[in-house]
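Obj.: predict assembly geometry.
Materials: sequence records (below).
Method: joint structure prediction, all chains together.
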Amino acid sequence: MALKNKERNLYLSNVAVEKALNIFLERINKNLKNHEKEFISVIDSLGRVSASAVFAKYSSPNYNASAMDGIAVKASTTFFASERNPIQLKINKDFIYVDTGEPIKKPYDAVIMIEDVVEIDEERVEIIKAASPWQHIRPIGEDIVANEMIIPSNHIIRPVDIGALLSGGIYELKVYKKPKVGIIPTGTEIIEPGEKMEDGKIIESNSRVFEGLVKELGGEPNRYKPVPDDYYLLKSTILKAIDENHIVIINAGSSAGTKDYTKKLVDELGEVLVHGIATKPGKPTILGVINEKAVIGIPGYPVSAYFVFDTFVKPLIKKYQGQYMDDSNKVQAVLSKRIVSSLKHKEFVRIKLGRVDEQLIATPLSRGAGVSMSLVRADGVFVIPQNSEGVEAGEKIEVSLLKPLNKINKTIVSIGSHDLIMDLIGNLIHKQNAFYDLSSAHVGSLGGIMALRRREAHIAPIHLLDATTGEYNVSFVKKYLSNLDMALIKGVKRVQGIIIQKGNPKNIYDFEDLLKEEIVFVNRQRGAGTRILLDYELKKRKINPSKIIGYDREMTTHMAVAAAVASGSADAGVGVLSAAKAMDLEFIPIGEEEYDFLVPVKYLDKGMIQLFIKVIKSKEFKEILENMGGYGLEHTGEIIKVK
Amino acid sequence: MALKNKERNLYLSNVAVEKALNIFLERINKNLKNHEKEFISVIDSLGRVSASAVFAKYSSPNYNASAMDGIAVKASTTFFASERNPIQLKINKDFIYVDTGEPIKKPYDAVIMIEDVVEIDEERVEIIKAASPWQHIRPIGEDIVANEMIIPSNHIIRPVDIGALLSGGIYELKVYKKPKVGIIPTGTEIIEPGEKMEDGKIIESNSRVFEGLVKELGGEPNRYKPVPDDYYLLKSTILKAIDENHIVIINAGSSAGTKDYTKKLVDELGEVLVHGIATKPGKPTILGVINEKAVIGIPGYPVSAYFVFDTFVKPLIKKYQGQYMDDSNKVQAVLSKRIVSSLKHKEFVRIKLGRVDEQLIATPLSRGAGVSMSLVRADGVFVIPQNSEGVEAGEKIEVSLLKPLNKINKTIVSIGSHDLIMDLIGNLIHKQNAFYDLSSAHVGSLGGIMALRRREAHIAPIHLLDATTGEYNVSFVKKYLSNLDMALIKGVKRVQGIIIQKGNPKNIYDFEDLLKEEIVFVNRQRGAGTRILLDYELKKRKINPSKIIGYDREMTTHMAVAAAVASGSADAGVGVLSAAKAMDLEFIPIGEEEYDFLVPVKYLDKGMIQLFIKVIKSKEFKEILENMGGYGLEHTGEIIKVK
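Observations (raw structure tokens):
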């Protein structure tokens, strides 16, 4: 842990992304061009990429074939047949019976459907309609003509291609070899799933994300056992990986700290092309080459890791298979919140999208490089170019989709107060109908009301106490949304209180105790109903909030508050009973409040809102909440129009 | 082959698709609901579907962690630091060194970046800026809070989900078992790849398409050895398949012929729910149930097979994994050609799409149930409902996409005359840049000019001889497109002639010989430049075309003509030398003609047309054509503006 300043190389370069990628690809172009191809069975070729055009060997059909069950005839012998003038045909002279697919040979040149044939006896049939030449015959090559191109080079093979290739007599084809991607997780602090969890340890997960991404891109991942921060171990692993793969990823250790050996090793074994890229997240990236093979040092934060992979490894894996980057899966959306960025770097902002009133609303998610859940929740990515200082709320932006748009169109956008039940409702909605989703952003009750006013959400969970009337929610809706027809879908009654550590070691019994010097508090963000409740209680007791240590430390969910208390980084916080229970903490009740769902009346008939109401009224939901405790469900799902 | 009428059951029912699907799903609902789940390792869960919501076990980070390399301090000891008032801190008393990710424990509550620290000696550092409490510390649960939902039920697991699950301490999760789909190919006429090809035999390919589709949908295909049309063999295979799978597909034999045993067997072993569906293609479909398991009898034509799978098997495989059919990947397009349909059935029309002048143009592909290449070429599917008689040209239709729209937007739409080189150009374009594609429809030279006039194509290959001037193409462009700025990209000179069988067994030497009674001719479609050339030559010789047997039999490509001659179903046809050579046929030259590419001037600057020109001017293209023979390349790629 003795990491002194002088031992560090503090200075990374700040190369623009596009420039870095060009330098990189140009340098390993020779290796790319010489990438091996292989012949594989067509039957096993799903998802592989053709390395040359494939031309049919046979025609399909390869003979003139009957297209119907019926009889084969010479058209000329039927020309005068009519209802008034039926013609009799003799078997093996004038006709033969044929099934669909059977060959039609000379002298026959037409087929009459069995439904149009009257059988007289074993040998003779009668027809009452002329057959035109070649009717109901599939000519040779109707589907595929020999020597016709079935698929071009660089084509990703689909099931229908396999069918056509086989029909054209092709049983093997030349494809690009799957590029092998060596993945080396490093770091003394990482543990494998199942190993003992303790402070300072983190579960290694980036390499597993890389494995999945490599597979999805058609490559072959090759993960090595995690390597601790040890120069010699890392060196031998890199040499092995370079030997066994086309591309090598070294995860973490790519920065400039004393234990960051990647740069030193790539320099020693090959060449560092770029160290430090003008991107956020992802700056401490290394692009290098060893034995003409690409080596990428990727930073450790999961979000950085994802975007650096996406920016530098993905195009490489594609190139090894004759594919190009496809950046055109973009949609236009309106930005709901101002984003400030730096001129120093290109920034990747994860975006939550919602279709509200026909408009696609883009809401930025957490920008922390360590927040892997922001990738799980993201619907798309918005790229702020290096020379931009950011974008204002209300501007149109282009978002690269991470989910299909039709999924996004069926997502209920909920913005407002947090409660644990939002996760549960989201799950039950998805369980009922995997078409629908609930996307839930936690900005507090007032923030939710504002989001509805700006038409950025379908629904807002709120719990706002009107101190003058003692009534919940209604007066706030009237005040802030007086010009809109709104409804409250009644939610749950829930118990709020002070969350404290198990056994109450700091002897906290009331709000006054929060003023003690040894007590560290953790708060919710401004606009949260829970904070408004806290302030109301403090005011009632004439307590000056600024005297409470930690009053300024803001968390955005009940669970985050409970987690802070559970870990000992805070002694007390305010939140709901269910959060305290979930973290096995103690709880001093303050009172019961009404947590409802505010929704514009015009949305009440929408399928997604109907599903939402159905879910919260369901038996399953009630049972889950009863098990959790701390919730009242008498009026859940009732609708109250406000106005 | 003795298939008499009385042995057949000619009458299938004609149940509407939606009704049939409802009957089917309702009947096997119990089996669907009891579908097994299993626990698997998160590491192996890519693409699997969660069978319940997954909640985090640990928080991530699970401790307060340094977000930077630097020093951990007590914020309160730094409050008065400034440039004028630097503060000195002592190691292990006021601060400790920390690396990114290391735990921050009491009494420390802030981190100062190493870049902002001045090291005085081994024990002391100086700072010139106050640290605010909790700065550069990732609080417990910043990413994931214990008990938070990471993914809901029925969620298809992506690489980023794997990362978040592991970070949340989840190493195993419950997923739906992959539904096993038994695939039984049947038919005495089918052969396996590698078996000897002969008339009446076809290569079994549908089961391989099903395998691919099942895999793509997350199921597990289980293909059985092809079963000949034998009642007992088929029976034992069905019983085995029912035992080993959740769903069983029997391919071909689902109609009502004497050798179509599927219906009889499903009836005997279980229950036939529906036989005969109001759909085109795909009418002779069987939906049944044996031992509460779904059995689907699918007709043999590849296109029927595809759509019946898509309509009845796909929703089933999805349901077994908690997923729903997603029909919303649709675009609006303008229909370029009238489509007539019958009120009797719902029809699936394969569609080629092209982005011309901002408009998406939909051109129907071959509607033959046997044309598997129409599935390879299709960009989408247009469904004509059962109660519709069809759609007029120019109407807006909804097309369900089979390819991403951005791929379609980068496709050169070529409509016009056919030549073998179109395949080659298409391949070279795709090889140069897998982003771009060439879609080539063959409607003859005049058809191509009309398509450009209607703005349905980017480019039209034409070879039209002006009999009065002897000049090619220009006068036709002036006549039909006088109001548009057009250019001709010079293509190739090519030799046209009469294609005859090897060794010339029928003694054909000139056009006059086509009149002989024993000679069967095969023609090109109306509007084809080759047919215009033929008519010109016939007229010159005062030959009455109606006296030529087979003059009315129309093929749309040179290769189809050559294939007809090669197979002996015709003795002669007119076409290009390269087609005769490709099929190893003999050839009587008529003359050389100019095969050019007509293009609106405004498209000349487009990237895709530039790439087209680059490709036809390339050395690789010239070498391929020189090897094929029959082409002149003096002016290839030159541009002539017409007007």
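Conclusions so far: The radius of gyration of chain A is 34 Å.
To do: check interface contacts against the pulldown list.
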